[in-house]
Amino acid sequence: MSEPSPASFFDVWDTYQKVVSGDYMFHHEIGAELRKFLNAQFDGRSFSILDLGCGDAATLAPVLDGMTVRRYKGVDLSEAALALAAENLKSLAGSLELMRDHILAALAEEAQYDVIYSSFALHHLPTEQKAEFFRLAAQRLEKGGLLLLVDVVREEDETLEIYHQHYCAWLRGRFTALSADEKDLICDHIVNNDLPDASSVLHAQARAAGLKVATRGTQFGWHWLLSFTHA
Ligand SMILES: C[S@@+](CC[C@H](N)C(=O)[O-])C[C@H]1O[C@@H](n2cnc3c(N)ncnc32)[C@H](O)[C@@H]1O
Questions:
Q1: How many CA atoms lie within 13 A of 229 on its CB side?
Q2: Does residue 144 form part of some domain?
């Protein structure tokens, strides 16, 4: 089982920023859905949020803009990404903490959050570690809290190998602002690091952890927004 390689991921960070600004992975649409979820849940009330695999937080920062965030904690393995996150989140009103850590280690710490959020990071964990993610997240969520999970999700009938082939073929057609070399770099990263599971697996793991599926999920191709609360 290959472990994620965030150092190599950061080598393609410039390329990832082009993917985000081209909205090729639907960050814009998912951000709009996220905003709706948070507004519906908190309706102006303050909340704390743990952002796991926060990267540079460039897409979450505008979503949180205007919301009453009491406490934000961002966790990532990449120091360079965390430095960018500090800049992108500097106008956040509440307390801001950024920590270099593994997602599961951060969840093992005794603290409660109103929102646990992770975007395009969980697919780096093997299936059994995703189950651990849900178990720990259920323990860290305040009563009535929300687990919001944005990630690539495999089709039910796709093996990992077929997913890699399908996704790379799709991105070569869609990511039009990227050069052939950049597309090769991303595909290389995907084949060597990405371990997405099917939504049935994620839903079953969440239920086993005592979480309730809040909505079936919003889907843009393989890119999903899943939401869970305490059962
Ligand atoms: C594709 S980026 C997503 C960044 C941001 N959340 C977004 O949605 O744009 C994935 C991030 O997850 C981080 N990451 C991957 N595996 C991780 C782990 N096990 N623990 C903490 N961070 C991890 C990487 O360093 C990278 O910054």
A1: 10
A2: yes
What strands, in cross-sheet order, belong to the sheet with 95-100?
A: 95-100, 69-76, 47-52, 113-119, 141-152, 223-230, 211-220
- Is residue 39 in a domain? yes
Residue 99, domain member (yes or no): yes
**In residues, how long is the chain?**
231
Domain count, the chain: 1
CATH (domain of 98): 3.40.50.150
Residue 1 counted as domain residue:
no
Atom 26 in ligand 1: residue holding the nearest Cα: 55
CA of 228 to the centre of ligand 1 (A): 20
Cα–Cα distance measured from residue 171 to residue 145, given in angstroms and rounded to the nearest whole number: 35
For residue 83, the enclosing domain spans 6-230
Q: Is 31 in the pocket of ligand 1 (CB under 6 A)?
A: no
Write the pLDDT tens digit of every residue in 193-210.
999 999 999 999 999 999
Mutate to test the pocket of ligand 1, among 26, 98, 120, 125 (most ligand atoms within 8 A of CB): 120
On average, the pLDDT of the chain sits at 93
Does the beta carbon of 9 lie inside 6 Å of ligand 1?
yes
* CB distance 119 to ligand 1 below 6 Å: yes
- Per residue in 75-106, pLDDT (tens digit) is 999 999 999 999 999 999 899 999 999 999 99
Q: Give the global pTM.
A: 0.95
5 CA distance to ligand 1 middle (Å): 10
pLDDT at 2: 37
Cα three-residue angle 149-154-160, rounded to 5 degrees: 125
**What is the structure's pLDDT at 8?**
53
Looking at ligand 1, which residue's alpha carbon is closest to its atom 12? Answer: 53
